[in-house]
Design goal:
Layout: E1 3-7, H1 13-25, E2 28-31, H2 51-57, E3 76-82, H3 90-97, E4 105-111, H4 120-124, E5 131-137, H5 144-152
Parallel strand pairs: 1-2, 1-3, 3-4, 4-5
Helix pairs in contact: 1-5
The protein binds flavin mononucleotide.
């Protein structure tokens, strides 16, 4: 089974988790990076005019730097992100729409400030042909025993 971990991380929490998850899943790693990197000001959701709010409420797609090589070869794709506005950031929707997930299994993982990941699968499933088989919120410092148990459940 060939496995990919693709993740977006604005401030590092999801990145640190994704790197360990990729080892636990014996997966390749792809960072979903916006063409235009987020600045601190872009992420200030308390400012109505901040980029994050414009993207969210303007339902904007977020152009991504580069592409996954040989995406068609993967059987299982993990997609990681910080919970934004109780859901996945728009860049994750852009990512999902950019590839053909037919025949693939997909598992979502996230970090957050306290919200759960529960709303994300129902929002992302209609955007892809693959099947979302799992979704889990982790602490950014989640350790191997927990990550192994979760990834082994998809093997
Ligand atoms: C624009 C924005 C919206 C957010 N919305 C939520 C939210 O709805 N619920 C929550 O628990 N945390 C929210 N957070 C906090 C992040 O989910 C949390 O800090 C996460 O661990 C950041 O991951 P990262 O370092 O990989 O970017 C939000 C953060 C930002 C920047």
């Amino acid at each position: 089974m060939k496995t990919l971990v693709a993740y977006f991380s604005a401030s590092g929490n999801t990145a640190s988790l994704a790197k360990r998850l990729a080892k636990a899943a014996d997966a390749d790693l792809f960072e979903i990076r916006p063409v235009e990197p987020y600045t601190d000001a872009d992420l200030k959701w308390t400012n109505p005019l901040a980029r994050c709010n414009k993207e969210k409420f303007g339902k904007k797609s977020v152009p991504i730097e580069g592409r996954v090589d040989n995406f068609d070869e993967y059987d299982m794709v993990y997609i990681g992100f910080p919970v934004w506005y109780y859901a996945a950031p728009n860049i994750i929707e852009t990512f999902v729409k950019s590839y053909d997930f037919s025949g693939k299994r997909v598992a979502l993982f996230a970090t957050s400030g306290g919200s759960d990941i529960a709303k994300a699968p129902a929002k992302l499933q209609p955007l892809m042909k693959g099947e979302i088989v799992g979704a889990k919120l982790f602490s950014p410092d989640a350790a191997y025993p927990e990550l192994n148990v979760w990834t082994n459940s998809f093997k």
